[in-house]
Design brief:
- By secondary structure, the protein is α/β, with parallel strands linked by helices.
- It has six helices and seven strands; from the N terminus they run H-E-E-H-E-H-E-H-E-H-E-E-H.
- The chain has one domain: Glutaredoxin.
């Protein structure tokens, strides 16, 4: 009986993880065009949305670590990553110069009014969400070195 209790206890997170619909929020590209999260989800069956900021060192560390393995992730799971900056008008001018020095192959979007951040209920960054077919399947806040392996494992589970 104890064995079954632990199995049930361990599987609860699988069922309680957020499977809410991705909020439909309008974001901007670096060139000033608009794109909605709904359009992103319609275009890509599996996607990662990573909220970050230029002033956030863990955010940049996380995106740098993901950038090193991103091509493999795409090959293995066909996942698409959108790095969404939450920089406000005071710090947004730092985005383009900063990413010019990075080897990031994913698209950078802007959440200028923090609409997506609020819709996700995020109080701090980095924040990462994995979305499959428009449903939020996994969410995580924070970054420690090596976390990208856990994120990849979650992507593999969700991709199946």
């Amino acid at each position: 009986m104890n064995k079954y209790f632990y199995v049930i206890l361990l599987t609860i997170p699988l069922f309680t993880q957020s499977q809410n619909a991705l909020p439909d929020i309008t974001l901007k590209t670096l060139s000033g065009q608009t794109v909605t999260t709904k359009q992103m989800a319609e275009k890509h069956d599996l996607l990662i949305i990573s909220l970050w900021a230029t002033w956030c060192v863990p955010c940049k560390n996380e995106l740098d670590a993901i950038a090193e393995v991103y091509d493999d992730w795409v090959d293995d799971t066909n996942v698409t990553l959108y790095a969404v900056s939450i920089d406000d008008s005071r710090t947004s001018k730092r985005i383009k110069p900063m990413i010019n020095g990075k080897d990031w192959e994913f698209e950078i979007l802007l959440d200028e009014n923090s609409d997506l951040k609020r819709a996700f209920g995020v109080s701090t960054v980095p924040f990462t969400a994995v979305i499959k077919q428009g449903k939020i399947m996994y969410k995580h806040t924070g970054y420690t070195p090596g976390y990208e392996t856990e994120l990849y494992n979650q992507i593999l589970k969700i991709a199946d």
